[in-house]
C-alpha cells in the first residue's frame, strides 16, 4: 500500500535533492537512493550469477541491462511505497561494479569476445611477463593481463580492438556516452602513477603490445565531472521513462573503491575488508612498498592515493552454500526457516567452537586462488580421525577458511612494516552481530570496526561519491566523509581476543600445510 507523500524525505525526493547509486556485484545488482543526509531512502536489487562458458567466467551484456532495469524498477517502487512519491530525477548518480576483467570493443562499439570477469585465472604468462617488465605486481585478473594474454595467444579479435574497459566503465559509457573511469577502477585496468593521477607513462611506453593510450578510458578522480545521463542512457536505465535524462554522473568506480567510501577508509593508515563472493582488504599507504609481492596489488583510492590491496578470489560463497544445505535440512525436518535466520544461527554457533576449529580443515576455493598459486578451485572439507567434529567447530572452520588466504596477504603487509590505525569491515557477513567481526580480528591480528552502514555496501558508497560532486570544489574526499557522512555514525570496534589469535594461528599452520590436499584435488577431480 502506497503511503501519502509527507515529510522532509518526500520533499527531497520530489525536488531532486537525492543521489542514486548502482553497483553490479558478483551475485547481486543493487540500486540505492540516499537523501541529503546520506541516509538510505530506498533500495532495489536483482540477483544474478556468473556463468562458466567454454571455461570462461562471464556475464552476458543482456543480463547486465536486465539486472540494472529490475534493480531500478524495484528501487522506484520501494521509494514510492516508503515515501509516497516516485523520483523522476536526482541531483547526481553513479555506477560501480566488480573491478578488473576484460571488455573489448571494436570501432562500431560491438563487444568482440564475451566479458571475461576478474574470476578467470588464465592469464598467467601475461601477468608474469608484465610484472617482470614493469617492476610492479600485475595480478591475473587485471584488465591489462587479459589483453596481453589475448595478444600472446594471437586471438583473432585483437586487431579489431578500439576500446578496452571494465564493467563499470562500460555501463557508464552507455549511460553518458563518455569513455571514462574513476581512478580506483582504472588502477585495476593498468598501473597508475599516484603523482600524475593517470596511467603510468613509463609503463605505457614499455608495454610490448598494442598502442594502449589510444583505447584506454580517460582517468578521473572523485568529484570530477563525468558526464550526464543521455536520452538513450535514461531509456537503458529505466524503460518506463520515469527517470529523466540530464542527471550528472560521478566517475564510475570499482567495488573496492566504493567499499573504501562505505567504510570511511580513504585516509592513510586506514584499511577496510570487504566480504562477498570474493574477499579483499584495502590498506591506504603512507609510502610505497619496498619490494614487489605477488600477494599485493597496488591500486588507488577514488581520490588517487596509493593502496595496497590483498585480493582473494574466494570469499563467502562456500559459507552460503553450507547455509543453504542446512536450510534444506531444516525444511526436511518440517521446520523451514528464512535464509538469513539459518545463516545467523550457524554463524553464532561458530563462536562456541574451539579456538583452533577443533582440528578441522576447509577450503572455500570455488575458483582458482592466485595468492596460494591454485590454478582452479575445489571446495574441500577434511579432518583427521581424532579431530573434534561438532557443528560449532565446523562453522568456525568455514568462517576461518573465508579469511585464510586474506590473512596470508595481510601478513606480507605486516612484514613490510605497514601500520594501521583502523581496519573497517563491511558486507553481508557482518550483519550477524559480533561473529565474523570477532573472527576477522583474530585472522588479521588487529582491531576491526563495523559501522551502521556495514550492510549497505558499494551501491551506497557510489551514491555517496555522487553526492560528493557538489562538495568537491570545497572539500577533499577524506574530509567530506569524516565530517559530513560519518561524523555521527555509530560504530563498534572489536579487538582481537588473545585466545582466538592463538587458535587462528594454529589453524593457519594447518591451512598452509593442507594446501597440498587442495592441489591434489584440482588434479584428481
UniProtKB/TrEMBL annotation:
Tagged with keyword Endoplasmic reticulum: no
Record InterPro entries: ATPase_NBD, FGGY_C, FGGY_Carb_Kinase, FGGY_N
Domain Carbohydrate kinase FGGY N-terminal: 19-237
Record keywords: Carbohydrate metabolism, Kinase, Transferase, Xylose metabolism
Domain Carbohydrate kinase FGGY C-terminal: 272-469
Family according to the record: Belongs to the FGGY kinase family.
Protein name: ATPase
Amino acid at each position: 500500500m502506497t503511503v501519502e507523500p509527507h515529510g522532509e524525505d518526500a520533499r527531497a525526493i520530489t525536488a531532486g535533492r537525492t543521489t542514486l547509486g548502482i553497483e553490479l556485484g558478483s551475485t547481486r545488482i543493487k540500486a540505492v537512493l540516499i537523501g541529503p543526509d546520506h541516509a538510505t531512502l530506498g533500495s532495489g536489487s536483482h540477483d544474478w550469477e556468473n556463468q562458466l562458458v567454454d571455461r570462461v567466467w562471464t556475464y552476458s551484456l543482456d543480463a547486465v541491462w536486465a539486472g540494472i532495469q529490475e534493480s531500478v524498477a524495484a528501487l522506484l517502487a520501494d521509494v514510492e511505497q516508503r515515501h509516497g512519491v516516485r523520483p523522476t530525477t536526482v541531483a547526481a548518480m553513479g555506477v560501480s561494479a566488480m573491478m578488473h576483467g576484460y571488455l573489448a570493443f571494436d570501432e562500431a562499439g560491438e563487444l568482440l569476445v564475451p566479458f571475461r570477469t576478474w574470476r578467470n585465472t588464465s592469464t598467467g604468462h601475461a601477468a608474469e611477463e608484465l610484472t617482470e617488465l614493469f617492476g610492479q605486481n600485475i595480478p591475473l585478473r587485471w584488465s591489462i593481463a587479459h589483453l596481453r594474454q589475448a595478444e600472446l595467444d594471437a586471438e583473432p579479435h585483437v586487431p579489431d580492438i578500439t576500446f578496452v574497459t571494465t564493467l563499470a566503465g562500460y555501463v557508464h559509457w552507455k549511460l553518458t556516452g563518455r569513455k571514462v573511469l574513476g581512478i580506483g577502477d582504472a588502477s585495476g585496468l593498468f598501473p597508475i602513477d599516484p603523482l600524475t593521477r593517470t596511467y603510468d607513462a613509463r609503463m605505457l611506453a614499455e608495454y610490448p603490445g598494442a598502442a594502449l593510450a589510444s583505447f584506454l578510458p580517460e582517468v578521473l578522480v572523485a568529484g570530477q565531472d563525468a558526464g550526464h545521463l543521455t536520452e538513450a542512457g535514461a531509456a537503458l536505465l529505466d524503460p518506463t521513462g520515469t527517470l529523466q535524462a540530464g542527471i550528472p554522473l560521478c566517475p564510475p568506480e570499482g567495488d573496492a573503491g566504493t567499499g573504501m567510501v562505505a567504510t570511511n577508509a580513504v585516509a592513510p593508515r586506514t584499511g577496510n575488508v570487504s566480504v562477498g563472493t570474493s574477499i579483499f582488504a584495502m590498506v591506504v599507504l603512507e609510502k610505497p612498498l619496498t619490494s614487489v609481492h605477488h600477494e599485493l596489488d597496488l591500486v588507488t583510492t577514488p581520490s588517487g592515493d596509493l593502496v595496497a590491496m590483498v585480493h582473494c578470489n574466494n570469499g563467502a560463497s562456500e559459507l552460503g552454500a553450507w547455509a543453504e544445505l542446512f536450510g534444506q535440512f531444516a525444511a526436511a525436518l518440517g521446520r523451514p526457516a528464512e535464509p538469513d535466520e539459518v545463516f545467523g544461527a550457524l554463524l553464532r554457533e561458530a563462536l562456541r567452537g574451539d579456538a583452533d576449529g577443533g582440528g578441522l580443515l576447509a577450503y572455500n576455493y570455488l575458483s582458482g586462488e592466485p595468492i596460494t598459486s591454485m590454478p582452479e578451485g575445489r571446495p574441500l572439507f577434511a579432518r583427521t580421525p581424532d579431530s573434534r567434529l561438532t557443528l560449532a567447530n565446523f562453522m568456525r572452520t568455514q568462517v576461518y577458511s573465508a579469511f585464510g588466504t586474506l590473512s596470508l596477504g595481510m601478513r606480507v603487509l605486516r612484514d613490510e612494516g605497514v601500520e594501521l590505525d583502523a581496519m573497517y569491515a563491511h558486507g553481508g557477513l557482518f550483519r550477524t552481530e559480533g561473529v565474523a567481526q570477532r573472527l576477522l580480528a583474530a585472522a588479521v591480528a588487529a582491531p576491526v570496526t563495523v559501522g551502521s552502514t556495514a550492510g549497505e555496501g558499494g551501491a551506497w558508497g557510489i551514491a555517496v561519491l555522487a553526492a560528493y560532486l557538489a562538495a568537491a570544489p570545497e572539500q577533499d574526499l577524506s574530509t567530506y566523509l569524516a565530517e559530513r557522512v560519518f561524523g555521527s555514525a555509530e560504530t563498534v570496534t572489536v579487538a582481537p581476543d588473545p585466545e582466538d589469535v592463538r587458535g587462528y594461528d594454529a589453524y593457519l599452520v594447518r591451512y598452509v600445510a593442507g594446501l597440498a590436499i587442495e592441489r591434489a584435488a584440482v588434479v584428481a577431480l
